[in-house]
Amino acid sequence: MADGDTRLAELRELVAEVLEVEPEELTDTGDFQEEYEADSLRAIEMLARIEKKYKIEIPQQELANMQNLKAVYAVTAGYAGWSES
Amino acid sequence: MKRVVITGLGPVSNIGIGAAAFESGLRGGHTGISAITSFDTAGFPRTMAGEVRAFEPEPILRRLDTATWGRSSLFAAAAARLAVRDAGLRVDRVPPHRVGVVVGTTSGESKVTEEMGRRIVDHGFPALPGELAEQLPAGRLAAAVSEELGVTGESVTLATACSASNYALGYAYDLVANGDADVMLTGGADSVCRWAHAGFVRLGAVADKACAPFDRDRSGMITAEGGAMLVLESAEHARARGATPYAEVLGYGLNCDARHMVAPDAASIAECMRLAHRNAGVRPDDVDYICAHGTGTAANDATEAAALEDAFDGRVPPVSSIKSMLGHTMGAASAFGVMATALAIARGFLPPTINWSNPDPAMARLDPIPNHARPARVRVAQNNGFAFGGNNAIVLLGAVS
Amino acid sequence: MSALQIIGWGVTSPAGTDDQALVGALDRPPAPVEVTGRYDAPLPTPRAHALLDFDVRAELGRKGTSFFDRRTALTVVTCRRALADAGLQVSDANRHRIGVVLGTTAGSVRSSVDYAVDTFTQDPPYMVNPALFPNTVMNCAAGQSAIWFNLTGVNATLAGGRVAFLSVLRWCANSFRSRQADYLLAGAVEEFTPHTAWLSRHGRDDELPAGEGGAVFVLRPPGGTHLRGPDAEVLAVTLGFCPRGRDRAEALAGCLRGALDRCGVGGDRVRMAAIGGADDAAARATAWRAVESALGHSRVRRIAVDGAMGDNPTAGGALELATVLAAHRQDPRLDGQLSVLVAQNREGAVGAAVVRGWGRGSARG
Predict the structure, then answer these.
(1) Which candidate in B30, B162, B211, B277 is catalytic?
(2) CA dist., res. B182 & res. C215, Å (int)
(3) Residue B328 annotated as catalytic
(4) Which CATH number fits domain C4-220: 3.40.50.300, 3.40.50.1240, 3.40.605.10, 3.40.47.10?
(5) Which residues does the UniProt record annotate as the domain Carrier (chain A) (predicted)?
(6) pTM of the model
(7) C130 touches chain A (CB under 8 A)
(8) How high is the mean pLDDT of chain C?
(9) Architecture per CATH, C232-357
(10) For chain B, which residues score pLDDT lower than 70?
(11) Is the pLDDT of residue C362 over 70?
């Protein structure tokens, strides 16, 4: 579980930087587009940083399933093979 | 205001070098797309581009020392030389200060940029060769043309990305119309390079094999290169020397989305069309053909189709994308579009959108002139150009009356 | 009839931003600052005229700025100063008639070269940074400035190195003539990076280090009034080209004579002149010879900012025009006086402009 918390915090920081907000302003379920003015370029940038950080590849089509922090974590966990524990 | 006509076409393109070859490529729906050879594509998931493999500057150029100029400058200069020849213009018989040059570009000498990157990685900054510093400035594209032709009128490079050569044509048109110049060489040039290709690939914007604009199953753009220069002159200047114009420049419109650097904006583009129509003194119903920006990305096609529906109030004339054949030649793209538009008017045919298989239900009413050129009488035609930075530029051409 | 009016301006420079600082720097140029170790690559000179304290986040905030390259950040900040100085309020009623027109050499060279570098160091090679891709196009600074201030009028970027700024003025004059805009933010701004520093050293035969910064002017068509009289009128601006083997000084002088003729001004009435810096001593001598030949005298006050602001091939001319206008604000005795600007680049492009300036609150005559 501690592992999951650390990774969520890492992702929060990463996404916050791309969306130009403070990590604590980024809620788990706030919609990137609606609440943080994200656009497609920001979304691709976020994906690129996740891929680089965890050395994984996530197809661009997955962006449709990565509209908030919780969803980003779920998709990333799936591709990185992070266990659910 | 003087009337302004196009009297010479100088295409250095991947479907043909010179006006006749380019025209037959357009009519035949040829493709200029092939596997990339100008850089190592190992590790790239997309490896096709529209390189001008047959380009040899030496036989075309008379004055430039080809060893001291970058590829984009050589494209521009060679295209200008071809345009002058096509126009039957003896440049030495026009006062040199009455001949100006305006060239549009997206990335200027992008192969020089690429080489600088490679040298920095391999040897560090202090070892950067002087030739690279010498060849990097983008203003060299216009300078190469002025130097090649030995003309002394203004020499300007417009760096407004992928609509730059429509910008260039607009400025050249104003200078001739207002009597600032007798003859203008105008167009654009860009080179295929590793880093811009990587950027478009990274954005997920590049097609696997073919560029299929307005097709339901489109998969993106193809990066490409070339030089496209035209001769513009006043109608009276053309008449006096017995030249036969392809078409008349009726006017142009410019605006800026001011919303997003990359994503185009339909309302703003529709506004730019209305502005261009107003400046050119034409009504939407007058327009017989539209040469689309038509990059073949989902974002462009949807936005462009929506803007056309809006500006033409649902009665959109036939629209084709020559990028289906050439790929996206960046700063040269709008000038190739002007050439296609001028040929449509002069020769009575509509250039096709090739690689087209299935209508896109999102733009069901659009006629993309699929796969085969079509004979048609074209009196007025529109050439669209959009760009990063939201720099929209739209040009209207008409038959010479 | 002039070509256009200037109703305000903004500067970001190593010598400061206000008129007092700009004029003061002509007599007491600030020393370049220590730059060794401050950048991620070796530099050609240990000191340079870099703006080490420039902080885009402090100027504009975080939102919308974290992917700006330095050239874009400096440009947006300079545009903001220019708008404030002109007192121009952007609204829904006028934003479609207000545009941005900038001069450049090759865009943000760092942005495009870093992109190329990434394709040689990343694995796989296309793992470049998507959010930075827009920075690689030369019209990035103009596009981002339009976005920042929501200006939907004409928007253009002209590449021409030392001649870029005069090309900008010429392009703007044409836009006004063809009634395409009511106001234009026009200028040239350059960044200091290891890339520009090394490019600046190419071919130099002196110790002048590179600089950064630039100036943006708020332009209006000739005639008509804004809040007050204009800060200046650009009476004429002309461009040309000098092919290899022709006399460069003569071409430059001819260009300036053309500008003077166009506005009917005698060279004897010109008081200040600027050449926008030079690539080497010979080019500098050529430029001044051309100015004196066209004016017919050598009594002009030479306005040169490269000693105070470093070599800035893209924006030197814009910074010198701002300095001329700063001198007008500092000294009412200069009201109505004439200045000329000339420029040339290595390739042979040449340009000239004739400017009449005033201080703020001065009577126009």
Answers:
(1) B162
(2) 34
(3) yes
(4) 3.40.47.10
(5) 5-80
(6) 0.97
(7) yes
(8) 96
(9) 3-Layer(aba) Sandwich (3.40)
(10) none
(11) no
Chain C hits for B116, Cβ within 8 Å: 113, 116, 195
Would you state the pLDDT for residue C37?
94
Q: How much is the pLDDT for C206?
A: 93
A-B contacts (CB, under 8 Å): 15
Residue B126 contacts residue B120 (beta carbons within 8 Å)? no
- List alpha helices for B319-387, DSSP H: 323-326, 333-347
Chain A nearest-CA distance from B334, in A, is 25
Catalytic residue check, B30 = no
H or E element at residue C245? none
Q: Is the CB of A39 less than 8 angstroms away from the CB of B202?
A: no
Q: Which residues pair with B183 in a beta bridge?
A: B99, B233
Contact C263, C235 (CB under 8 A): yes
CB A8 within 8 A of CB A73: yes
Closest Cβ opposite residue C130 in set A17, A20, A45: A45
The domain segmentation of chain C, as residue ranges, is: 4-220, 232-357
Q: What is the dihedral of CA B83, B88, B90, B96, to 10 degrees?
A: -40
3-state helix, strand, coil in chain A (%, to 5): 70, 0, 30
What domains are defined for chain B?
4-240 (3.40.47.10), 251-398 (3.40.47.10)
Are B139 and C150 within 8 A, CB to CB? no
How many other CB atoms are there within 10 angstroms of residue A76's CB atom? Answer: 24
Cβ-defined contact of B202 to A40 (cutoff 8 Å): no
Is C125 part of the contact surface with chain B (CB cutoff 8 Å)?
yes
**Model confidence over C40-92: pLDDT tens digits?**
999 999 999 999 999 999 999 999 999 999 999 999 999 999 999 999 999 99
Computed from CA positions of residues C123, C126, C131, C134, in that sequence, does the dihedral angle turn out positive or negative? positive
Q: Quickly tell me which residue has 């420079």 as its tokens.
A: C13
Of the two residues B77 and A40, the one the predictor is more confident about is B77
Non-local CB neighbours of C27 within 8 Å, separated by 6+ positions: none
Contacts of C348 (CB under 8 A, 6+ apart): B143, B146, B147, B155, C241, C242, C243, C244, C248, C251
**How far apart, in whole angstroms, are the C-alpha atoms of residue C114 and residue B384?**
31
Residues 6+ apart with CB under 8 A from C131: A18, A41, A42, A44, A45, C67
